[in-house]
Design a protein that fits this description.
Layout lengths: L1 H12 L22 E5 L2 E5 L3 E3 L2 H9 L11 H10 L4 E2 L18 E6 L3 H4 L8 H4 L1 E2 L5 E4 L3 E4 L5 H12 L8 E7 L4 E6 L5 E4 L7 H7 L12 E5 L2 E5 L1 H7 L13 E4 L6 E6 L5 E3 L2 E3 L2 E4 L7 H7 L8 E10 L6 E5 L6 H5 L9 E6 L1 H20 L22
Parallel strand pairs: 3-20, 4-13, 10-14, 15-21
Antiparallel strand pairs: 1-2, 5-6, 5-9, 7-8, 10-11, 12-13, 12-14, 15-18, 16-17, 19-20, 19-21
């Protein structure tokens, strides 16, 4: 009899090292159980993290920091793109060497030159041909040929400057020259718009200045999955970061950069701007391996609060969750933090709604203690049933008083 009791207790102790399946936080922990990389004094060290309580004092401290706001210049979402992909964009816009005044002709442009009362000079290729085909094509060397004038250098010059030269040189052969020059087809200057826009492709720079805003609008606007904070502009050998959201919502017109020939405007996706929700929520998804609770949320314009994230995850599971134990694990840009929210009382969600999340935050809703206890019993019960199958007399009931032992062991 004593041997059997010993075997039962030993069997109960077998799963002790993993007695509660799954993940859970220690109820009395005030620090992380693992060391995390933290940057202090420009040096990365490993240390355990203090668990900060999400209360009114913490919320006020966050709101005093302007960079926790969506349009704060040093908002984490403005830097996370570079941090994750390892790029070295220049925060800010390129400085213009000189302001834009007029369009300057370049190679492959087609000019339409009109000389009044001289149709043989106006349309030398025939009056029924389109100007794009009958005009004067600027060669790769930046020049074109014109009757009576000869070679005219056009690249880098405005149409007014070209008109003045032609008028002066034709006046040697024609009295009272009346001449006009226009660009019939713009082909020399191109800008490339790629990424999360409706119609990516090449856009031509014409006589109307092409800015970032106009280029994106010409491309059909940004898609819903675009990261409007981290648009990149590559010019020559440098890449700049443009915050289109500050232009749209904050009125920062400095972000509306004037584009030039060869510029590459890239609108990245917002796949990096995600938060992850794990634990006891009402979210359910059917998959090949069964039902899962975890999900990820893309932060719209990199804006999301803790309450919004919990709501999008379906809220707490009222049967299995412990709302008093909600944790936010933050990797940050070189800064790791852990936060704890006690939402046992629903009004604590007012604080959570003023707690802004950052990209790649992990939200964890812990299980209730009673659920863990039921899981322990569920683990032990198969062992008890196994022992009972060997002896029809001994009936072991877990966590109940054992019957009086018989005088002899049969």
């Amino acid at each position: 009899m004593h041997l059997k009791i010993f075997l039962v207790l030993a069997a109960c102790a077998l799963p002790a090292c993993s007695i509660v399946p799954g993940q859970h936080m220690s109820p009395f922990s005030r620090q992380s159980s693992v060391k995390m990389p933290v940057t202090e004094n420009n040096e990365t060290i490993l240390k355990t993290l203090d668990i900060q309580t999400i209360n009114a004092e913490l919320v006020l401290a966050l709101e005093r920091d302007f960079n926790t706001r969506s349009l704060g210049p040093d908002n984490v979402a403005n830097h996370y793109f570079d941090y994750r992909i390892g790029s070295r964009t220049i925060k800010g816009v390129p400085m213009e060497a000189e302001p834009y005044t007029q369009y300057r002709v370049g190679p492959r442009d087609i000019l339409n030159i009109t000389v009044w009362d001289h149709p043989e000079l106006t349309i030398p290729a025939g009056q029924f041909r389109a100007a794009e085909k009958a005009g004067n094509v600027v060669g790769e060397d930046g020049a074109f040929f014109y009757p009576y004038v000869g070679i005219v250098h056009a690249a880098g010059r405005t149409v007014e400057e070209i008109r003045d030269e032609l008028t002066e040189r034709l006046s040697r052969y024609i009295e009272n020259v009346q001449l006009d020059v226009r660009v019939a087809d713009y082909r020399s200057q191109r800008v490339y718009v790629v990424g999360e826009v409706a119609q990516p492709g090449i856009q031509l720079v014409k006589d109307i200045p092409l800015t970032v805003l106009e280029a994106i609008n010409n491309a059909g606007g940004v898609k819903s999955e675009a990261d409007q904070r981290n648009i990149t502009l590559t010019r020559d050998d440098k890449t700049y970061s443009i915050n289109l959201l500050s232009l749209y919502e904050g009125g920062d017109i400095t972000q509306n950069v004037l584009l030039k020939h060869g510029d590459i405007l890239n609108v990245p996706d917002s796949s990096l701007n995600k938060v992850f929700i794990l634990g006891e929520t009402n979210f359910r998804v059917l998959g090949g391996a069964g039902i899962g609770r975890s999900r990820s949320l893309v932060m719209n314009k990199a804006r999301l609060t803790l309450t919004e994230a919990l709501s999008d995850a379906g809220g707490f599971d009222q049967e299995t969750s412990d709302p008093a134990r909600i944790f936010v694990f933050r990797g940050g840009v070189g800064k790791s933090e852990i936060f704890h929210l006690d939402a046992k009382s629903p009004d604590a969600l007012l604080l959570a709604d003023r707690f802004p999340l950052q990209p790649r935050d992990v939200i964890y809703v812990d299980r209730a203690e009673g659920i863990r206890w039921n899981q322990i019993i569920a683990q032990i019960q198969p062992t008890v049933n196994l022992l009972n199958s060997f002896d029809g007399v001994l009936r072991i009931q877990p966590f109940r008083a054992f019957p009086s032992a018989p005088s002899t062991i049969r």
